[in-house]
Amino acid sequence: MKNNATENTRNTRPLHILMSGGGTGGHIFPAVAIADEIKKRFPDAEFLFIGANNKMEMEKVPEAGYKIQGLNITGIDRGNKLANIKLPFRLISSIYKAKDIVKNFKPDLAIGTGGFASGPALYAAASFGIPVFIQEQNAHAGITNKILSKSAQLIFTAYPEVKGFPAPKTRFLGNPIRESIISGRVDSKEAKIKLGLDPEKLVILSVGGSLGSKTLNNSWLEHLDLLKESNCQLIWQTGKLEYQKLESDSKITRLGSQILLREFITDMPMAYSAADIIVSRAGAIAISELSVAGKPVILVPFPFAAEDHQTMNAMKLVEKNAARMVKDSEMKDKFWATLTELCNDQNLRATLSQNLNFFAKPNATQEIVDEILKKLKTE
């Protein structure tokens, strides 16, 4: 598919790139990472992001140094069906505004990484013959990306065989992750010492996102006595909502240096390096980072994620014997037994780590940009 306006202007002006991704960090970060990589190769390129008004991309994208325009678009409210009455009107108005943005900006290509605004933005670009590319982070393709995939040049995924995407257009290249996750890794014993932990004892890292996970926090509280008996050490990222309450809990403080309690972990590469076992939610970017970290992991999918995509993400790893999964509803019965099995079986930990390597894509950002540029040259 050729865009005549693009062909006529490409040789007389800098590359113009339209980006769209937002709603959550899992959509915003890949978009910014891809833009940063293109910027490295084309320093004079001009970028414009399209986001959803009142969503976090309207703040985070400018912080990353890029311009953004907002659409009055929202997602489906599954909890209040009456709230969806205005959705078709918002969608139509967003498509018209996105078309105006495309007309004025005249992009040479458009890249979408998901989020409410990504649908109207990429639909508008495709309607003008602009080459469109999709980066899907999850194992389950959302309905918007399924529709957009018909007009996309290429679709980049973090899992093989994502249903709903045409195989000839799909490339299993992984999710962009923070460069520090790759470059900041150190020897495990060295990391334990730097964190004030015993280098000769097993370390469990528990992460539940910046807000934390009530499920994980409650589970650790319920198993503190067993943790003490196990002699394992715990790096426990609580999230900001419950940190103060947990910090003053006498049941936790009496375990002393056996628990390293943190509201938020700023140096994740150090924590990953120190860990022998990781317990985590199953968000797409988290799994991509965990795969590069290469440590045996127990995934506890957030059950209320859209279309239960975290469970689907986790299942892809479980099917490859690259992780263990415990659902929220199974935590009381299965969590400690699953954790104990990993703690006691070094060979099992090694097997899970080795199999997890299948999903490790440390060069995802560069390879995605390589494929985009290669495709554009052949058009």
TrEMBL record:
One of its GO terms (cellular component) is plasma membrane. InterPro entries: GlcNAc_MurG (IPR006009), Glyco_trans_28_C (IPR007235), GlycoTrans_28_N (IPR004276). UDP-N-acetyl-alpha-D-glucosamine binds at T24, G25, G26, N138, R178, S210, I265, Q310. The keyword Cell wall biogenesis/degradation applies. It is found in: Cell membrane. Pathway: Cell wall biogenesis; peptidoglycan biosynthesis. It catalyses: di-trans,octa-cis-undecaprenyl diphospho-N-acetyl-alpha-D-muramoyl-L-alanyl-D-glutamyl-meso-2,6-diaminopimeloyl-D-alanyl-D-alanine + UDP-N-acetyl-alpha-D-glucosamine = di-trans,octa-cis-undecaprenyl diphospho-[N-acetyl-alpha-D-glucosaminyl-(1->4)]-N-acetyl-alpha-D-muramoyl-L-alanyl-D-glutamyl-meso-2,6-diaminopimeloyl-D-alanyl-D-alanine + UDP + H(+). It is a peripheral membrane protein. Residues 204-360 form the Glycosyl transferase family 28 C-terminal domain. Keywords: Cell cycle, Cell division, Cell membrane, Cell shape, Cell wall biogenesis/degradation, Glycosyltransferase, Membrane, Peptidoglycan synthesis, Transferase. GO terms for molecular function: UDP-N-acetyl-D-glucosamine:N-acetylmuramoyl-L-alanyl-D-glutamyl-meso-2,6-diaminopimelyl-D-alanyl-D-alanine-diphosphoundecaprenol 4-beta-N-acetylglucosaminlytransferase activity; undecaprenyldiphospho-muramoylpentapeptide beta-N-acetylglucosaminyltransferase activity. Residues 17-156 form the Glycosyltransferase family 28 N-terminal domain. It comes from the Bacteria. Coiled coil: none annotated. Signal peptide: none annotated. Its main location: membrane. One of its GO terms (biological process) is carbohydrate metabolic process. HAMAP family: MurG. PANTHER family: GLYCOSYLTRANSFERASE, UDP-N-ACETYLGLUCOSAMINE--N-ACETYLMURAMYL-(PENTAPEPTIDE) PYROPHOSPHORYL-UNDECAPRENOL N-ACETYLGLUCOSAMINE TRANSFERASE 1. Belongs to the glycosyltransferase 28 family. MurG subfamily. This is UDP-N-acetylglucosamine--N-acetylmuramyl-(pentapeptide) pyrophosphoryl-undecaprenol N-acetylglucosamine transferase.
